Amino acid sequence: MPQSASLEIHVMNVGQGDAVLVINRALDKVKAAITTAKGGASVPPNPIDYVPYALKNGVSLAGTITKALLVDGGDDEYGGDVLNYLTDQGVLDGKTVYRPDLSLVVSHYHDDHMAGLRSVFKERVDPKKKGDKVKLVDRLRPGAVYQAMTDKKSDPTSQRYADFQEDITSAMSVPKNKTRRVYISPGGRDASTKQQVTIDLGTGVNGIAITATVLAAAQAVWDAAKKTTIPISSTGSTVDQNDRSVVLVLQYGSFRCLLGGDIAGNGVGPGGNFGANAADTSSKKSFSQHADVESTLGPALEAYFPKTAKWVKGQPKFTADGYCTLFKANHHGSSSSVDVHLLATVQPLVFVGSSGVKHRFHYHPTQAVMNRVTKTQTAQWGRRAKGKVAADSVKVNNTIGGIYLTEVAAKVKNKAFGVSIYTAKIMGNTVIRPVDETIAAIQDATAPGTLLTVQVYGIGVLTPLADPTSTLRPTAAKNAAPAIYPIGPFTHSDTH
């Protein structure tokens, strides 16, 4: 049976940084673009292959986007890469500035997540003659920008933060086709409407909704059970931007994706991390001092996304509270993030991490996190305490079927980066796509036992390093067939 994939999640390779592009793609328009560009030549028989085929054969994907969401934009030196990627994927066409079909979320105000957006918003035009000033010309005005509510005590004083705010203000100030800004209050509430922020990304197969919901922001988590926000206390005298990260849950039928920005957990025993899974607390370099957001987020996920009580046709189905099919590593796989207790809640099928060397190197992913997510190292995860049930007395099986990383250092400043990634695959830009037909089948099911299938493939582009004392590990072996996929595709399934 032919397969299709309307929803695409692109974890872009921006070195030590984050940039995630979510696309709801109109596959019929991709088919039409291929047919037109190739002079009526036949398209691939399997719709899931349309987009890789188009990219391989130089067919423009402009005009094939239903809706898109960009979460972060990497550091400033990756801005051009993000811009080119958006263009390659058809989100931008190089001509149209106002894109109402594109929304932007800035998880938090650290440069490795925010600074690259200047190149996406503005084009630098150098002076033609001496004495003229550099001009910044609008390149993109997204339909909406979502950002955590500004706060004088915690907002950065950096020029890059000021530039970002200036770009948003500029996009909101044009006479027409203005960008809409949504401030997110603590816990993920719209500062104006006081409602939970949910971003509409259109519909996929059979009209099934695709949404992105904010469950935490501005150093607070939304508690659906008590219908209130839970503030997260700082560990020091100054607020860390990581603790204020916007946490999104993307949902398409029974598929969910957790995007947690740079939030941290506990890293050691209270987070379920023992032995080789525990962070080394003897050095600040290897152990984060950020506040523990994950311990509050876990129960919030379980309350907001409970398991299915009754299998009813026309509804998504889940076998565990808080389940998310795809888990993008919080804080690039820092040892104080991705706690075992959170893994036991999410029970992901696929795990993907964004890490690298340039512009900075923070020793990510850490060995502790690779140990926690790899089945041969941690076959079961302990659960957090609940009621009278003691922490770690209840175990759940490690559910991860595939681990994917954007890039990993081999050597930094002439020193080997010896973290073992076990069976994880290095992919460069990484694309994750749930198969539409399995989404539809679960939606129609009236009893447990239907498979959800996810496809993952890589584009295989690594950071060009100018420093000869640093090197990167090679990407996964390229696949011979079908040749349109640079790396992969790999498929994983779980039962709903």
Order of adjacent strands in the largest pleated sheet: 9-8-7-4-3-2-1-24-25-27
- Could you tell me the strand content as a percent range? 25-35%
How would you classify the helix and strand content by structural class? Answer: alpha+beta
Instruction: State the assembly state of the protein chains.
Output: single chain
N→C terminal distance: 20 Å
- DSSP helix count? 10
Break the fold down into its secondary structure elements and pairings:
Layout: E1 7-11, E2 20-25, H1 27-37, H2 50-56, E3 65-71, H3 79-88, E4 98-106, H4 111-114, H5 117-121, E5 122-125, E6 135-138, E7 141-148, H6 159-172, E8 180-185, E9 189-190, E10 198-203, E11 209-217, E12 220-223, E13 228-231, E14 247-252, E15 255-259, H7 294-304, E16 326-328, H8 340-346, E17 350-353, H9 367-373, E18 380-382, E19 395-397, E20 402-405, E21 409-412, E22 415-416, E23 425-426, E24 430-434, H10 436-444, E25 451-458, E26 471-472, E27 487-495
Parallel strand pairs: 3-4, 4-7, 7-8, 15-16, 16-17, 17-20, 20-23
Antiparallel strand pairs: 1-2, 1-24, 2-3, 5-6, 8-9, 10-11, 11-12, 11-14, 12-13, 14-15, 18-19, 21-22, 21-26, 24-25, 25-27
Description:
The mean pLDDT is 92. Helix content is 17%, strand content 27%. The protein has 496 residues and is α+β, with helices and mostly antiparallel strands. The two termini are 20 Å apart.
Name a few traits of the molecule:
10 helices, 10-stranded mixed beta sheet, 496 residues, alpha+beta, 27 strands, globular
Task: Describe the structure concisely.
With 496 residues, the protein is α+β, with helices and mostly antiparallel strands. 17% of the residues lie in helices and 27% in strands.
